[in-house]
Design a protein that fits this description.
Length: about 300
């Protein structure tokens, strides 16, 4: 797993660069990250922001903006509106957050008539490269849905499974997490986990192998699962971890990052296009990995749409 993100970047750079609306990249990290990704062939940025601010940052960081299209706007809220408008017009296949707040961007994404909503619930997925784990690990949802309902979790699972398919995981193993591995009404997340597994049995969630409830140790460690006599094709080999709520998911991802030296790429799915949510704390490697994952998913999504149209 040591070179997993490098392989993703190589795969993404072999694809045509994805036109990407970069919303309000008005600091060194967000503007520099977008240009770095463009120079590595991962995307073609459309820079949406106040021109004076963009040029000031570019001058300070010695960045050349001349190869890139710039869409001047007045402020960050206007940038969010314009970025979404550019995607709706078909001029960009990816949306990328700059230096504005996540809520400000997602507010425009979620507008009923002018946003990027689909029939799916929007959710966030971390793609993690964990040095102590032998495969890529997807964790969801750690950034969007605070207290997801069972219906929300259905879409959260499906979004993550779709991303796993795009990344080449044919039948991802999905662990539905709780504090224990038995179903008990005292812990509603265990009841949700059991229901999600039955929904998968009935074809309401497709493309993955689900099991739960599983405690974190049972999900990632076969010996821990065996010690509790858990018979499961998923336990100890999860590709996707579905957290019971945002707090749990966020803590898992942050703990793996800061205690286990994991690298994390982040993506929002369920909208018309993938959305890259970058953070000022992200490393250069993580920023590029997020762009690579978005490019791979956008290309996969286009391929699925084209196949469906051909079969119709």
């Amino acid at each position: 797993m040591e070179h997993y993100f490098e392989r993703l970047r190589e795969q993404a750079s072999s694809l045509p660069p994805m036109p990407t609306a970069v919303v309000h990249p008005c600091d060194a990290a967000s503007l520099g990250g977008a240009i770095d990704a463009a120079e590595k062939g991962l995307l073609t940025p459309i820079l949406v922001g106040p021109e004076r601010k963009l040029r000031a940052v570019a001058e300070e960081e010695e960045l050349d903006l001349s190869p890139y299209k710039m869409v001047p706007v007045k402020h960050s809220h206007h940038a969010a509106e314009k970025g979404v408008e550019i995607v709706r017009a078909g001029e960009a296949n990816v949306l990328m957050k700059g230096s504005l707040h996540t809520d400000e961007l997602m507010h425009e994404v979620m507008q009923k008539h002018t946003g990027l909503r689909t029939e799916r619930r929007v959710s966030h997925v971390y793609v993690m490269q964990v040095p102590t784990y032998p495969r890529a690990l997807l964790i969801t949802d750690a950034a969007i849905n605070i207290y997801p309902t069972l219906e929300d979790k259905q879409d959260i699972c499906q979004n993550a499974i779709d991303l796993a398919h795009a990344l080449g995981i044919e039948t991802p193993k999905v662990g539905i997490l709780s504090a224990v591995e038995t179903v008990t009404p005292k812990l509603p997340s265990t009841v949700d986990a059991a229901a999600l597994c039955k929904m998968a049995d009935r074809g309401q969630i497709t493309g993955g192998l689900l099991d739960g409830p599983l405690a974190f140790d049972n999900a990632i460690n076969k010996a821990a699962a065996a010690a509790k006599h858990i018979r499961s094709e998923v336990a100890g080999e999860v590709d996707i971890m579905v957290a019971p709520d945002l707090e749990a998911g966020n803590m898992i991802a942050k703990q793996l990052t800061f205690l286990a030296n994991a690298e994390a790429a982040g993506l929002v799915l369920g909208a018309r296009v993938p959305i890259i949510l970058t953070s000022r704390a992200d490393s250069v490697k993580a920023r590029l990995a997020s762009c690579a994952v978005a490019a791979i998913f956008a290309a996969w999504k286009q391929g699925v749409a084209e196949k469906a149209a051909a079969d119709a």
